Amino acid sequence: MVAVVRLLEWSVLLALLAGYAAFVAAWIALKRRLGLTGPRAPPRQALDRPAWLARRSLRALLAFDFLLILPVMLLTCVAAGAAGDLATGLLVLLPATVFLLPAWPLLRHVRAHDARLAAGLPAPSAAEALAAARTVGHAGLDALLAGRPPVTTALLLVITATSVAAWLLPHADLYDRLAKVNGAILAGEVWRLVTVALVHANLLHLLGNGSVLQQVARPLERLAGRWALLAVFVLGTAAGTAASVAFIPGPSVGASGGVFAVTGALVAFGWRHRAILPEGLRRKVIRSAAITLALNLVITFSLPFIDWAAHLGGLLAGLALGALLRPTAAVRAALTAGPTA
After folding, report:
1. What is the distance between the alpha carbons of residues 288 and 205, in angstroms, rounded to a whole number?
2. What is the CATH number of domain 144-337?
3. Percentage above 70 pLDDT, the chain
4. 180: helix, strand or coil
5. What is residue 120's DSSP assignment?
6. How far apart are CA 145 and CA 221, in angstroms?
7. 221-268: per-residue pLDDT in tens?
8. More reliable by pLDDT, 49 or 88
9. CA separation (Å) from 137 to 125, 217, 274, 279?
10. Residue 249 neighbours by CB distance under 10 Å
11. How many CB atoms neighbour CB 1 within 10 A?
């Protein structure tokens, strides 16, 4: 009996080592295929600093994913499946995508540097690189997107001020008055469907929602208009809170429902008007919002304490509202005037 146990232990150990060796082999093969190492990789002296940094970052990310994240996630999934909880095991794989998704934009940078190197073009200056990162390839739209977004700024200021006041003035009972509390909402305090967005659990919660909101609300405001952004945020927050009331019994706070609504609206807006929006705008703004949305969905279903119903409710409302939005008159005029306007 002891010999059988020892044999099983060694078999499991050898299987684990073989599996990890497979990840190592896949990592090495992928690096060579992408031209990051091996005979296809350009020598260091042929690369300028941006090209070298892009390659080094991609190599480091692939090493982190293939040598740590993916093996750990797969092992956790297998262990959960062996314990009879396969659903939880599959859910554990979701956070791995947070570390896999950045590989795509890094690879695009590497390919762009390779194309420039092959064409014999000089490296761009710091000013040229910064300008290229900011432009969407259309002078008129660049000017519009660079304009001030008053509604976005106002939302961030109000949310920040109310959240900080709730932390510093606990006797004011702002949480009790503004948070999502199912019993209070069902009793008639319907303002909580929206005011839940004004208070946050802690500084990290506030910074997370605020940073994403600033990233997606500004372009939506400039492309679809101030009132459109405000309507998406308010209605999306209300829809997300209503979904939370239906599926989540406990109280919650935060602007996540509205943030998901604005992100979904930006993606839907870009998809509906993809025929008239220039490729640079779709690539820089709309695809960025889609990646942000994907990452936040992964986080939503990876952490048990997150109000997934509010996120999905806000997202669905945002997608529906975004499909109804139209470009502002200023955007249509810029598109009509052409890319050099």
Report:
1. 21
2. 1.20.1540.10
3. 84
4. strand
5. T
6. 9
7. 999 999 999 999 999 999 999 999 999 999 999 999 999 999 999 999
8. 49
9. 18, 21, 15, 8
10. 9
11. 5
Instruction: Inform me whether the pLDDT recorded for 47 exceeds 60.
Output: yes
Please provide the average confidence, as pLDDT, over all residues in the chain: 83
- Domain span(s) for CATH 1.20.1540.10 in the chain: 144-337
CA distance 112 to 54: 10
* pLDDT at residue 35 in the model: 84
d(Cα 302, Cα 308) in Å, to the nearest integer?
10
User: What is the rounded distance in angstroms from the CA atom of residue 210 to the CA atom of residue 236?
Assistant: 16
pLDDT value at position 188?
A: 92
- What is the predicted pLDDT for the residue at 341? 42
Q: Which residue has the higher pLDDT, 87 or 37?
A: 37
DSSP 197: G
- Residue 125 — φ and ψ, nearest 5°? -70, 170
Q: Which two tokens stand for residue 43?
A: 């020598």
Q: How far is the C-alpha of 235 from the C-alpha of 230, rounded, in Å? A: 8
CB neighbour list of residue 175: distance below 8 Å, 6 or more residues apart:
166, 199, 253
Task: Name the 3-class secondary structure at 42.
Answer: coil
Structure tokens, 215: 């990233």
Q: Which of 191, 198, 204 is nearest to 258 (CA)?
A: 198
- Please enumerate in sequence order all residues whose Cβ is within 8 A of that of 177, keeping only pairs 6 or more positions apart, or say none: 195
- 3-class secondary structure for 35-85? CCCCCCCCCHHHCCHHHHHHHHHHHHHHHHHHHHHHHHHHHHHHHHHHCCC
* Residue bearing tokens 């300028």: 48
331, two tokens:
């955007």
Number of other CB atoms surrounding residue 306 within 10 Å: 17
